[in-house]
Amino acid sequence: MVLAFSVKGDATPPLLDERFGRCEAFLVLDSESGEIQSRKVNSGADASSSAGITAVQTLANAGVQGIVAPHLGPKAEDARKRLGLRVWNQGTHTNVDSALEAWRRGELEEITGDSKPKGLHRA
Amino acid sequence: MEICIVSGKGGTGKTTLATWLFAYHGGSALLDCDVEEPNAGLFLDVGWDSVESVNTGYPIIDEYFCANCGACASFCAFGAILSSPKATFVLPEMCHDCGGCGIVCPHGAITFGERKTGKIGQGVVNSPREHGGFFSYGELNVGEFSGVRIIKKLRESAPKDRLVFIDGPPGTSCSAVAALENVDYAVLVGEPTPFGISDMAMAVRMIRELGLPFGVVVNKAGIGNDDILDYCHKEGLTILGSIPFKRTVAESMAGGREGWLEMEEENLQIIAPIAEALALEAGLSQGVS
Prior knowledge:
Order of helices and strands of chain B: EHEEHEEHEEHEHEHEHEHH
Radius of gyration of chain A: 13 Å
Structural class of chain A: alpha/beta
Structural class of chain B: alpha/beta
Helix content of chain B: 25-40%
Shape of chain A: globular
Largest sheet of chain A: 7 strands, mixed
Number of strands of chain B: 11
Shape of chain B: elongated
Strand content of chain A: 25-35%
Largest sheet of chain B: 9 strands, mixed
Helix content of chain A: 10-25%
Oligomer: heterodimer
Distance between the termini of chain B: 16 Å
Largest interface: A-B, 14 and 13 residues
Strand order of the largest sheet of chain B: 3-6-7-2-8-1-9-10-11
């Protein structure tokens, strides 16, 4: 499966971003081989609105079939559902390698229900 | 002649200036183009002629013909259409009704529907001063992204036979540009505060890019220092006058229609030199009342 992750910085292994729509970049890889297909800088990060849905469209254009991400807002969640992308919540994982391993073992929660706006819960 | 009042920073005094100039010039026209928060009507007694809803178009995708090729989604500059090989769907409230998606669709799958985006009211002004002038306002529905369609409609239905004042929206977005486009003269309301000056600089850029002649009115004069005058001087801006930072001005505005009526004489004295300077700068041919 072609999987996408929200990433930030340039560490190895790449660190997961805490945001989806406004993350720094998307890492697109082949889930079986782990081979990285592309790292796309997120051009929608500064958008005044619709960053989440723009991100979903960007990933759909890249042939992504599944997304491992932090919480998706209601519009992004609706968009990815309608466009046929699957999404798993990255949970407490902090880098791509550990999240990918957990995904392979089926340990990540797949999101199937409706989403409510949640923000980053930092307050 | 059309004169548009803008500010950059919100809450600077556009509506104060617009309604006072409108009151000063009996029989003129006032368009409230701050469609996200129209408030000029609070100061007027209007005999309403009509309140009509404003519609905007949006694409409807016929699933029978749609091949999920994504041409429409690629074309859309506003993110109103999303597409993958599995599905193509529309987000109507993002649509700016440009019609482009319908043109690029190779399968004839797109038609256009209409949906309400807001409303426009217009009427004749009875008070203050037995005005007899024309007033119209636009109001954007909650949740809508853009007031531009409503503002354009307001401008289209403005009377052509008299002086028109346009109470513009704050900021320098598409809405402000739609209110300003092609007017004869712009008045930039500034206030002597750091935010006032910094947002004013953005408005100056916008007005200059639009190639419009303009002048400045300083509102709440006295609330801050002279930095705003230094800024105007440095930029070579024409200052038409100022409205003082006085409790009576604030009370007048807080009192709406009644507030104006109570302070009418004083307000007219404050606005008169500004109106005269504006008439001179803008080249108003008619006499002032």
